[in-house]
Design goal:
alpha/beta, 5-stranded mixed beta sheet, 10 helices, about 40% helix
Amino acid sequence: MNIINILGIESSCDDTSAAVLCDGKLFSNVINSQAIHEKYGGVVPELASRAHQQNIVLVVKEALENAGINISDISAIAFTKGPGLLGSLLVGTSFAKGLSVSTGIPLIGINHLHGHILAHFLRDKDESSFVPNFPFICLLVSGGHTQIIIVKDYLNFEIIGHTIDDAAGEAFDKCAKVLGLPYPGGPVIDRLSKQGDKFRFKFNKPRIAGLDYSFSGLKTSFLYFLKDNIKNDTDFISNNLNDLAASLQWNIVEILLDKLQKAVKQTGITEIAISGGVSANSGLRDELVRQAEINNWKVHLPKIKYTTDNAAMIAMVGYHMFLNNKFDDIDVVPQARMDLVSI
């Protein structure tokens, strides 16, 4: 049987990435991050798409070279078709299409969120497997999405909870901005929280029925809490920065895990995974491990390098779609908004 080589391409936001997966093992994963957005306090879509145009050829070339693979050896091109910034997605999609037309290699459009879920199955070429067993519950927490998902198979899942407004990552970044911290704020909050008292300050928590999330109320509560205290102490933020960061992080972690605990009770599934950018947060990871010990859960934490946007996870989804003969026509179009559905 021929080796299945998948070229993955990711360009949903501000990271240009390409990866090569050979029979399910990762042979290369190249990421070019765009530092230009830091001075603007967030991703500027026009700048992001221009940078993708500058980077994508070199990134794909490097991924192929690092893997020791020629383009003629590639079985399929898996690319992110959504969700994300439309201009950024267009660059990756257009490149994938052009490469497909010029080489005859088939296309596989990938949902970015699906990639985050299957990041748990990524293994280097010389690494043994230790992966979640189906079915498992995945808490997907990224910059723009917060969802609780029952993962039944590589291509089959059910969303049982989601955010009705802001996502956890947005809460981190928006509250960090109010504190005057640089972008992206989530990692800065995480770093400062390690020196703070997480029980020092309390903020309002949402009362949302079922397994859905809401973080807009916490963000508003945090903002008004700061305003009220700054009236009495203009240096309140600087004098209490570590405790504010630790308390904010703890509140977000509590909200996330409260719903996760309910999902476990509701489904009876005790194998748990987290994924997405926020799954790199040390407070979330530590508390999830603690809860697993108390409740006898089996927990899977992704490698930090696979929590952020990367093409390796896109290639992994592409590999399983290839095995199931799921391909896209050349007229496939990117989608800024895209629901996560079984395939």
